[in-house]
Specification:
With 241 residues, this protein is of the alpha/beta class. The protein folds into two domains: 3-111, no CATH class; 123-227, Rossmann fold, CATH 3.40.50. The chain is built from eight helices and seven strands; from the N terminus they run βααβαααβαββαβαβ. The strands form two sheets. A five-stranded parallel sheet has the order 5-4-3-6-7, sandwiched between helices. Helix 8 links the parallel strand 6 and strand 7 (225-227). The protein starts with a strand and ends in a 14-residue tail after the last strand.
Length: 241
Amino acid sequence: MNKYYTSIKSKDGFGAQYQRIIQTYIYCKLHTLNFAYTPLEFIEHNYDNDQNYINKIEELINLKSKLQNIDNSMIVEELDFGSIVMKYTEANIDLCNENNHMQFIKDCFWENKERNHFKNNKMNIAVHIRRPNSHDTRIEGANTPNGYYLNIMNEIREKYKDSPLQFHIYSQGVIENFKELEKEDVEFHLDEEITQTFVGLVAADILVLSPSSFSYVAGLLSDGIVYYKPFWHNKKRDWVV
């Protein structure tokens, strides 16, 4: 009987879990191992206790119906993410994200969505600003000052000054916390529904990451320009530091 490999189960937020699924799938493909998909069971940051939250996330990533799912008849091993999968994918970040297997992940993601997400005929810049929330007060990323993002936004304004620009700030909290970022070319998406936020990040022409798996994995899916702030996950070679 064939042996299958799958991603480890966890109770992290969506970004971290999606990243593990993607990178475990690609690791298996690059090492000619049989991969089976483990459907999601629990995801943090379901602030409203939405009973349909898991289904919304499954529809967002659109892998459950595209890949063979694990079942009790299989011999299945969970591949440890930290010591096996991440160790390899971080060391071979471009190899793991510039191949047909990653393109399959992207195609699955976009199959049930419209790529023209913003519908405004402008160059759209998505800026993810990680801030503390009721489920997670970890300071990495959350303590990055607004001035960091403002500097990047101004650099983009200057570089693309001949193009109509629309910035989209994706974060949590109240607008008073982002006063220095307010301008006529800025739209705020605060505490927006998670699937809409994530599609906006991936669909943007330019994506500004925060040190967060949520926007990091959006960067892996993005076909646009990505601005990266160094943290514990490595950058792709074409990302702007």
